[in-house]
């Protein structure tokens, strides 16, 4: 279903990516935040449910409601999922909705510009909208013209990110910072090309998401390497903080969608939509963007890394990023705990937590209604336990090889996260080769306490978690489904 945004005539309430309420002449929607443009695409897979819902619209009291508005209302009130598709600034005409003016004929060039605009990702951060997406548009246009695939663009972005890390390692902080930003601009383009050409794939989503983490954490390593004094504890700690945050972001999103995203039927003859309480009302643009910035998304985060690195290398990046990241984490977790307190009961079953736990001692999902926090807490326990043991033994053992061990482990947890979001578990044989959480802590504790170098463990985990696991995942998603 197509929707636009016009605060003066909004008649749809959209939340959790679904339409929750429709305003008509006889139905209220006080929290409406989108405008219906009068286009609906119905699914044949729900034919019987749709027909049952539409049968309720024959009552004479609904005769004055425009047909498409009534159809949409009937679908929403009968708890049939309707997903809005934003058309943003695309020209549209519908006399029944007050748009009488004819749509001007678009030249091929204007049409391409419009398609580039519509290729923007919704829900982007402030810096991404203000700067990055504008700079990525020429790259996207050129890529579409040359037929370059989104995955190739992701790979180019990865190479640029690696080179920026190399420059950081050589203390060329200004050029490294510029290239780090360029890698992000190019990375914006891969998703835009995918949306422009409608070329999506499970591999592309996994490749894009996983390489973002690789680039960021390799930059941490490069900045620690180039610092005049050992900053490996800072690099490992910052990687732990960001991993803690990212895993809770994705996991909470999946859990909250299951908890809060469910649709409930509502009598078609009731004028009130059930979303009249103040907490459901819309928010100002200023408040929206302040909350976006406080969430410290990738655009703002990489900008902070680049600026701080250009000023003073790792000695500025690590303390600064710890401060910004901690403030953002505190804000995010306070918000999520407050939302979690409103949840009642066990909630729908969701495998996203169980598939991430990676524990030897239990195969049951932990945490109850706070289960979204479990993957992050387990990762924190694993990394901080190893760091604590290393500090107790000797500060010098916290070096680049220990960073690589924990980097490979963190990559494994991201891999498990992305698989779990697609309802895929990490293969048991790979999990056991990776020793699981308890086994890895025990192994590293033994090596650190006996003074054995962790170099070979680093190579083993890198080969297993990044090499073998990635190949296995690629082969798995290429298998034809047995539908």
Strand content: under 5%
CATH topology of the largest domain: Four Helix Bundle (Hemerythrin (Met), subunit A)
Mean pLDDT: 88
* Sequence of strands across the biggest β-sheet: 4-1-5
Q: How far apart are the first and last residues' alpha carbons, in Å? A: 27 Å
Which outline best applies?
Answer: globular
- Count of DSSP-assigned helices: 17
SSE order = EEEEHHEHHHHHHHHHHHHHHH
The structural domain count equals 3
CATH architecture of the largest domain: Up-down Bundle
| The CATH top-level class label of the largest domain | Mainly Alpha
Uncertain segments are none
Helix content: 55-70%
Please report the total strand number as a whole number.
Answer: 5
Radius of gyration: 25 Å
Structural class: mainly alpha
CATH superfamily annotation of the largest domain: CDP-alcohol phosphotransferase transmembrane (TM) domain
Largest sheet: 3 strands, mixed
